[in-house]
Design a protein that fits this description.
globular, mainly alpha
């Protein structure tokens, strides 16, 4: 029993912290009828459906197949470095930053082992992490904070994309330039296993379900209908996936909603956040993300400002910085520490340097583009 509890606490550390914070705020604001209004059911249903569809796509081996198809062309070292970094950049736009890193970090570690390039693991994995965090900001479904803010402020594609795409383009150029010199010039050809797609029919089904998710994000299809369709489809096609979904993430969001709602009802907290947001919503979003990560920062701060543009930019750019600024960054760190000859000190040093550089560049770009 003790071992199970320890394993749960390690595996669901964020959920545990969120529960503690929710309980503390519940002591300050006792539960009442207003609590029902805290919960955004539309966001929770969309998250559930997206997780289910992405899990199905993963089970078909689609991401590994994509990576190997690109590598079969035998790119040179500079091109290979760019490919490995930009794969999570673009894939994260559709399947979220954490899924992109869970997929491509182990693949990259294995590939570097085959190439005898272990020294390149740290800079390459750091760049992949930055790439996933920045690529995911390009779409409403790329990360949870975008999905939440898109729904909470009832944004349209015409609102959303003109704000995020210019910074995404700048990030793309910077990442490609940083990735080009990472791998050594003398590089043997990678040994590929010939990854094949598993069950293309199921992959086509998940593709259709993903399109339905997008239609719901853009308010064409009601979220209740989407939820019924997705859950029923998985129950029939691959019921085991329903047991593997990250329900802890959904519970964490519920706790975030409770914390945000309760803090908004505390006069002292309300006045403090209101004052900070009036000075600079962008910087408040960035700084709050460094402390509590960008997803809860988005949920918390959205209750205090109508300036959705600067808040969106703040929590997306704020995913750079400390390892907890974006929880997806902890996935890379965890996977790297499990690898052979891991050097956590070097990883954190390179991670801090790369994230600080990205933070400065994108904050400067945002100041110029949206002043």
């Amino acid at each position: 029993m003790k071992t199970r509890i320890t394993a749960f606490l390690k595996g669901e550390a964020v959920l545990c912290v969120a529960v503690v914070c929710a309980v503390i705020t519940m002591a300050l604001v006792p539960p009442d009828g207003a609590y029902i209004g805290y919960i955004d059911l539309r966001v929770l249903c969309l998250l559930l459906c997206l997780m289910a569809v992405v899990a199905g796509v993963q089970s078909c081996g689609a991401f590994q197949y994509l990576a190997e198809q690109m590598l079969l062309r035998r790119p040179g070292p500079r091109t290979l470095g760019i490919i490995l970094v930009l794969l999570p950049f673009f894939v994260s736009m559709a399947v979220t930053n954490d899924v992109a890193l869970i997929t491509f970090v182990p693949f990259t570690l294995l590939l570097l082992e085959q190439l005898g390039c272990r020294r390149a693991a740290v800079p390459l994995l750091v760049l992949q992490t930055v790439a996933a965090n920045l690529g995911s900001m390009a779409t409403p479904v790329g990360n949870p904070q975008n999905l939440f803010l898109y729904a909470a402020y009832e944004l349209t594609p015409g609102d959303f994309f003109p704000v995020v795409l210019p910074l995404t383009g700048i990030a793309l150029v910077c990442l490609a330039a940083a990735a080009a010199p990472v791998l050594p010039k003398a590089l043997p050809a990678p040994e590929l296993t010939g990854q094949a797609l598993r069950n293309p029919r199921k992959l086509a089904l998940y593709g259709v379900l993903f399109v339905l998710c997008l239609l719901t994000v853009f308010r064409v299809l009601p979220y209740g209908i989407l939820t019924v369709i997705v859950v029923a489809a998985l129950a029939l096609a691959e019921p085991v996936l329903l047991k593997k979904l990250d329900y802890g993430l959904l519970a964490t969001f519920v706790c975030f909603f409770i914390v945000s709602g309760n803090l908004g009802r505390l006069p002292a907290v309300h006045d403090l956040l209101q004052s900070l947001l009036e000075r600079s919503t962008l910087l408040t979003g960035v700084l709050t993300s460094q402390i509590i990560s960008n997803v809860p920062a988005a949920v918390l701060l959205s209750g205090f400002t109508d300036n959705w543009r600067d808040l969106l930019l703040g929590v997306d750019i704020g995913g750079l910085g400390t390892p907890i600024a974006s929880l997806a960054s902890l996935i890379t760190l965890k996977l790297y520490l499990r690898s052979r000859e891991a050097r956590p000190g070097r990883f954190l040093a390179v991670f801090t340097l790369a994230n600080a550089a990205g933070l400065v560049i994108l904050l400067a770009a945002a100041a110029v583009l949206f002043r």
